[in-house]
Amino acid sequence: MTQTSELKEKVLRSIDNHRGMIVGFGEEILRTPELGFKEYETSRKLAEKLEELGLSVWTGLALTGVKARIKGKMPGCSVAVIGELDGIICPQAKFAHPETGAAHVCGHNAQLAAMVGVVVGLVESGVMNSLNGEVVFLGTPAEEYVEMAFREKLYQSKKIRFLGGKQELISRGEFDDVDMAMMVHALPNCPRRVAEVDTSMNGFMAKKVDFIGKPAHAGMAPHEGINALNAASLGIMGVNMQRETFKDEDYTRVHYIITECGKSVNIIPDKVSMEFHVRGKTINAINKAAVKVDRALESGATAIGAQTLITNLPGYLPMSNNKRLSRLFRRNLSRLIGEENIRPGRHSGGTSDMGDVTHIMPAIHPFLGGFKGNNHTPDFEVADEEMAYIIPAKCMAMTIVDLLSNEACLAKEIKDEFVPAVSKQEYTSFVRKLSSY
Q: Residues near 360 by Cβ (< 8 Å), separated by ≥ 6?
C-alpha cells in the first residue's frame, strides 16, 4: 500500500467514526433554512462547528460568508472546499421557514455537512501533517438568485457589489489565496447511489423590466390610459414567438415572473414590473438571445404606446468542470459507489455561481444522488443519508489527499496547466461588461 493510500484509509476511518455528527449537522441546517445574504444563523452554526474542530474562522465575508483553513506540513497548493449557506423560496416544503418560505430543497445543507465531514477527515486523522499546501473551507452565501429587490437595496447601499455570493467573494479577494476549488451538488430525482461527474451548466443574464403606461379609470375612461399590462402581455408573446429561433446546441432558456402589476382592477395598470432570466450554454448564446428578448419586449410596449425600462443584471457565467480534477474525483468516487454507477457528464440547463469560479481557476461541481424529488420543489428530500452526507465528504477528502500528497505534485501540475478565461484581477470588470448594472 502506498503512502497516499494509507492516508486515504485514515481519512475514511475518521469520517466513519464521526458519521452521526456529520449527518446530524446536515439535518440541523435542513431545519433552519435562510435566504441569501441573510444566512446569519446558518453562518453562526457553521463557524461554531469549524471552531469545535480546531479551526480558526473568519466570518462576515460578503455579509454572511465563512472561511477557515488547515495548513499542511509545508507550503504547496491551496484547495478550497465550498458549501453554500442559503435555501430557496419554497413555502410548501416540509421544513420551510414559516415566515420567509425559505427551504433547503436544493441540498445546500448536505453540502455544508459534507464540508464538515472533510474537515473531520483531514483533522482527526492527522493526515495534514503529511501533505503540502493548505485546504480552505468556504461557506458561501446567496447562490440562489432570489429576492432581487432586497439585493438591489444592498447594492445601492454599497453593502454588496454583486447579487450572487461567490461573485461577491471573488470581487472582494476571498478567492485570491485559492488555487483550485471543489464542491458537490444534489442530483435530483435520484435516491440511488449514482453520480454525474463533469456535468457542465448554463450561464444566465438577469433582466429587470418595467413597462410604464398611464393610469385611467378602467370603466369610465379606459381610452385615456396606456395599459402597461397589455404592453407586457404583447412583449411576453413576442418573447415566446422567438423560441423557435433558439438553437438546440445553445441550450437557451428564457423564463420570467411578474413582480408588480397594478394596484386596483378598476384602474388601468400604469406599471408592470418583471424579472427575466436568459440562460445559455455560452456567453455568446446568452447575448444573442438577450437581443431578441429586448426587441420583443420593446415592440410590445411600442404597440401600446408604453415605455420599457430594461436593466441587465450580472447573472452567472457558464460552468465547465476541470477535466483532470473531474477524473481524479471520479476515480475516488468509483471506489465508493462503483464505476458502473457514475454517469457520463452532460450539459444542464441550470445555473450556479460556481460557473464564475470555473472561469478563474480549476474547479469541479459534480452531482451526487441520494435525493428524491426534483430540486426547488416540496418533494425534494434526502433519501440516503450515506450518499447525501458521507460519501461526498469521503470523496472530496480523498481527492485532496491525492492533490497534496507527494509534495503536491499533482496539484501543481493542474494549477500550472490551467488557462483562466479571465484573471481574478480582471474578473469584476469582465462581469460588469456583461450587464448594464
A: 170, 175, 420, 421, 422, 423, 424, 427
